[in-house]
Amino acid sequence: MNKSGTIWKYLSAAPHRSLFLMGAFQAVLTILWWVIELAGRAGLMESVSFSSIMPIWVHGFLMVYTFFPFFILGFLFTTFPNWMNGEKIKANQYMTVCLLMAAGVVLFYAGLIAGKFLLSAGLLLMLSGWAYAIIILFHVLFTAPAGDKRHAWVAGMAFIAGWLGLCAYALWVLTDGREMLDFSRQAGIWFFMLPILMTVSHRMIPFFSSRVLENYVVVRPFGLLWLMVGCTVVHGALQLAGLQEYVWWADMLLAGCAFYLSYIWRFFRSFRVRLLAVLHISFAWLGIAMLFFGLQGMLLWLSDGDRYWFGLAPLHMLAVGYFASMVLGMASRVTLGHGGFPLVLDNLTWLLFIAFQVVVLLRVIPDIFPGVAPLAPQFYLIASSVWLSCFLLWVIKYAPIYWRARVDGKAG
Fold it and tell me: Which domains does the chain have, with CATH numbers?
């Protein structure tokens, strides 16, 4: 077998390999594009943005719909059969999903320069990949003979909501209908990303904790999970209805649930094991983000909408602090475990994760402290540059694992 055939053999040996690899590359490309945009805004280089779409709407789309989904699908295609004792997903299925989505992303980037035709073609390919992924996930869900299917149902429904958000973005590109963009933005965060990551956290953090901490009791209160999912749906629905000043009560409730779960999941005990600590730290950002969302909404309500407090700080605490940190932590664990390596987080990856937490602080400080606001462009550029450096180093370290055999000689 030639070299390219060998690489394909290993990339297709397990669902996470190709999908994580594309997610890793997209993590770098997404922020590289944004760093260039921010550098242009800061006057450090000439602007090179050719897109007819406002850069902020491209940035949000790339983050939610073209970066996170590769990692989420790589994880779900691996865990869905395990959660429910279902049939393993076939290589031709997950490779088809990966290739459709990857081709769509490439055409989307090309369309930012060439225009709406390539943008639309890229979005159509992404929609096709997502639709096939949903069919695959629900086939496992419906045919699995046993197992607890509650987590799988939430994740599956959230992915349908994400597909609808992607549809809405495509319609916005074609029609310029503002309501389509608004739905895509809210659906991507509140109906897709947050329900899925809360569900995965609820399922996996207690499980992983029980594997490495002595005398650890697994606690998974499903009542809290349903309440948290309900709160995030209410938040998104109120935002879409233009009633953002009333979302604070749902945000505060969700923050309280998240802080309580961090407590009963033994946040401080997790620091005995780095690979576990990164998951607990990531989840802690959920409580912090929703607390700031709640305070923002409450102040908006009390001031009759005269001032929008904290700017985008709560959103970046959620998207970078919780979403991206959790992806980094989970992807590291899955890559090590399924690559045949010991489940130990080395010094480099630990330092990258700590630096990633600094990214969150750098991004939100100008929005929280008015005295720093004049320096916001510099803070944003530094934060994005640190993100880019972290993921680039992560890719250099972990990406080769995906196209090589497991070091323990096992299949997968």
Answer: 3-402 (1.20.210.10)
